[in-house]
Amino acid sequence: MKSICHPPLPPHLLAVILLLLLSAGRAPSADGDRVHQIFHSRVPREVRRFTDQLRSGSITIESTGTSLYESGGKKNESRSTTLAKKRGQFYLLKSEQQSGSTDNLQFCYGINSQYCFELTKNKSGSAWVISKVVFATPDFDERKQSFLLVSEGGFRHLADNFISSLTSVWMAHGNGMDGGVEAEKLFELPGFQLKSVSLEGPNENLLRAKFTYDLTDTETKKQCSSDCVMDFDLGMYCLPTKLHQSYKVGSKQVTHDWERQWVTAADNSYTVKRAFDGKTTSDSVTTQVTKIRTDMNVNTRDLPETDFALSAFGFPEPPGIDFNKPFPYYLLAGGIGIVCLGAFIFVRSRARRERAVS
Predict the structure, then answer these.
(1) Whole-model pTM above 0.70?
(2) Which end of the chain, N or C, is surrounded by fewer C-beta atoms within 10 Å?
(3) What is the pLDDT of residues 292-323, one digit of tens each?
């Protein structure tokens, strides 16, 4: 049998093949290292900086949302509006949720330097009325005041969670009341494993991370592994913008989608568009679908104390309280003058005694 001789490969083709072979076993590139550095260092640092900025100054959040729950051909829709304000230790939290023709959740709380108040709706549901006013002390704790519809953490805790949820991600194992998972604490999720991370978009302004972590299903109480794909906007404080999550327990399949799109506006304000939370749970018998769509306006302008008072709702202030009364600088000036006069008299009398002795 004659052997078949192949003509030699061109030198440039040999060089290409050699380069490909070398690349196959090469360590991660510098670009890959840079992307991992962005995910592990820059993302949590910038998100934390923006979160601290929202928490430390004045903030106003106006939110309107609709939710839809479907199961077995039945639908339940509800609408909600929430107003949250914070400046230091001053808080205001007002929420109204309506399901069908019944108003099933309405509350309003506020606290300023002088007092804490609670508003409730009247019997017809047409107007707010004052249900409780308690004068505040340095160690004031609203959890001990028998306020309505206040969780164990108090309404200030609810407001803080609402603020934290702006820069956090609601995931399948949690709920909206717990504030979600902060982006800088993703690595602390049980069993967290990063699968891949890459830069996407025409300007590489989007970071996409694929990872998995362990969770306990809320219904079956069984542990499983959840697969996630999460996007971060590198041009907007590296805020998380999108999440797709899925896991399976026995015959039960769960998919969870979350989205927040931030837009910068004028006057230190932001608009959160396309805010969406969706969860689909299916098994061999039923399919349950939950969809929540929310619009939010976030403003960080400075707030006066009157925004946290009864007068903000058209009610008179408690007797003896006037937030608009100017600070009595004349009393301060008078006090300083008396101190100076006393010091002058003391020094002069002492000088006279010393001259008399000499």
Answers:
(1) yes
(2) N
(3) 999 999 999 999 999 999 999 999 999 888 88
Taking 50 as the pLDDT cut, the residues of the chain under it are 1-6, 9, 12-29, 326-333
**pLDDT value at residue 85:** 96
| Cα–Cα distance, 182 to 291 (Å, whole number) | 22
Q: pLDDT (tens digit, 9 = 90+) per residue, 244-274?
A: 999 999 889 999 999 998 988 877 789 987 7
Go through the domains of the chain in sequence order and give each one's CATH number.
30-313 (2.50.20)
